[in-house]
Amino acid sequence: MSLTITSKAVSKCSKYEFSIYEHTLTLVELDNFILESMYEEEKLNYLFQLNTRFNRKDRIKQLQRFIGNPFVNREENVDDIDIRANISDNISRQSYYTFFAEALLARLNIDFIDNNLVSGVLKIGDNVSVTSHGADVCMYSSDILVLGEAKFYGNLYGGTYKILKDKSFKSKLEDYIARLQGANTITLKNIHGDITNKTECEIQKLPLVLSGFILHTAESPTKKYDKSYKLIEKISISNFPSHYKIHLFHLPIESKAELIFRAQRKALDLIIQLKHYDQSKES
Question: What's the pTM?
Answer without folding.
Answer: 0.86
